Amino acid sequence: MSAAIWVGLFWVLFVAVSHYFHAPIAPRVGQPGRLVDIDQYAPLVPQDAPLYNITVASCAPHIGCSLPRVMDDDAGPWVRVDRPLSGPTARKLGVWNAFDKPWYGRFVFYRRAIRPDTVRIVDVRATTVQQKPEGPGWQRLHEVLLPHRAHHAAVYLYVRTAPASAPDMGVTELSVHYGHHTPLPGFEFAGTITAAYRLHSQKVKVSLLLRRGPGVQVSRPTLRFRPDGTFKILQIADLHFSVLEEPCRDVVDRATCQSHNHTMARIEQWLDAEQPDLVAFTGDQWNGQGSSWDERSTTPIWVEPLIRRKIPWIPVFGNHDSESGFFSRTEQMQFLAQLPYSLAEVGPSALHGTGNFQVPIYAATNDTEAWTLWALDSGANAPFSLWRPWQSALYDWIHEDQIEWLLRTMRAKPVTPHGSHATRPPGLLFVHIPLPEAWDTPDKDGDHEWVVGWRQESAGSIGGQLRRGIFDAVQRAQDAETPGIRVYVHGHMHNNGDCLMRRMDV
């Protein structure tokens, strides 16, 4: 067979194996949104059933995990907290993300109480024997979290239990966290597993998190115009956050810049000064490139200020977001959709990309959809082609099925009377990689070009999408009742902050 056929067979086999190891994280939930599958790990889904017992075990390929036998009917099956207890192991698994799930290392396991009258766990601590928790009722588990080494003492799990009649709120969830960052919403730190482990000349902290009660429960926000007819959106693009502190980019003095701290300090200032009604993250929230190897640990950095201020937010994906990490692109969007005040959606599964969705903005005084926010996934790398192998180095684009879905859904919206005429709501589109039209000559008013801001990066293979289509298609779909997309917003270009006007004839 020719080399092209062998290459094709290899990629078919690779995709098949990756699909075999892939498992979605969307759990079955009951009413009102409680987790039904007590044997499935889903830390952000509300859950009332408290933990009954905890253990630590090692997992290995083809062998599985050695767990103690279940000898009673008071609790459900063992559930694995799906992050390894070793920072270097987690990084390796997060970078090797083709198979999506952890498959070796030491893990924490727990069982949930299934009888309402049984004993439950009400507190958990990860610490050394020398720093064991004070007070009565604490029990140390025999299994060690972190064995003794020359540079640190052994770390154990301590648990405190209480009968069902006790007023203490039960622990309902555990998680493992990497880095010196904010924990997941609704979680608190339960101790340090590894204080500082050397990793590529940096140190990663590994912590245990716990949640009490069902967790953070926030209804999906509804967007409305203000009484004065305004609606303010703050766009944040290309954060490129990693588990560990990375060098600053695109700054004059890199030596004095602390990327996470300085970036979040600036975002906090913007949120307070602008008081936005919505924050739109337009891609590359995660750095990828082997450094953002755990999404659960990095995401709270940039969403916590919004949750604290109760500000709705939406994300679109960039070309780097799925380069490294435990989650597939679909699982990343499922994870973001579970966070408080998020308006994220996975979108239609039949379309190219993940995160193609719409969000209505209603009028201030009624439920008329005044505007529509659209999010489209502009992808990552261009699809691999045996006949054009050089194309794989270029970035992806908005595909025809995404454009057709946008136009079909846009024109299916009801027509609303506005004085002497009636129209559908105009739209605002968020993507990551800019449309090719972003580099076209702006409109002119005489000799004046309708462009503001600055541009230090130009188009090319690293600048805009490879193919045109969406701009012209939306323009052709416009008529007296369908104003279409009026504003296109993108990220991707770190050193550009310009806005230009392109006239769209109706």
From TrEMBL:
GO CC annotations on file: cytoplasm
One Gene Ontology term of the molecular function aspect: phosphoprotein phosphatase activity
Signal peptide coordinates: 1-18
Lineage: superkingdom: Eukaryota
Keywords: Signal
Sequence ranges assigned to domain Calcineurin-like phosphoesterase in this UniProt record: 231-495
Name used for this protein in its record: Phosphatase dcr2
Organism: Malassezia equina
Gene from which the chain derives: DCR2
